[in-house]
């Protein structure tokens, strides 16, 4: 079963990379996306270790960084809300 999921993951990743490379994107999008991703990771890190939300911990992984990158600071609220709903 793991082999099937690995094959699906590899095929979907290759397809996504092919689409991204063939699509003509405006210049500088990769730099802008990388900057947003770095700022999102820093915001999650700062939120976890500043003590602003005591008793909560936002995991620092690609899924949470991606959510915060795409949604901005409301993405942090989304992650916290999902974590609250799934844990309790």
What does this structure look like?
By secondary structure, the chain is mainly alpha-helical. 77% of the residues lie in helices and 0% in strands. It has helices at 2-22, 29-50, 62-71, 73-87. It is flat and about 45 Å long.
Concise structural overview:
By secondary structure, this protein is an all-alpha fold. The chain has four helices and no strands.
**CA-atom Rg in angstroms:** 16 Å
> How much of the residues is beta strand, in percent?
under 5%
Q: Overall mean pLDDT score?
A: 81
SS-derived structural category: mainly alpha
Which parts are unreliable, with pLDDT below 50 for 5 consecutive residues or more?
A: none
Question: Which of globular, elongated, flat, extended, rod-shaped describes the shape?
Answer: flat
Q: Order of SSEs, N→C?
A: HHHH
* Termini separation: 30 Å
| Main beta-sheet strand count, sense and barrel state | none
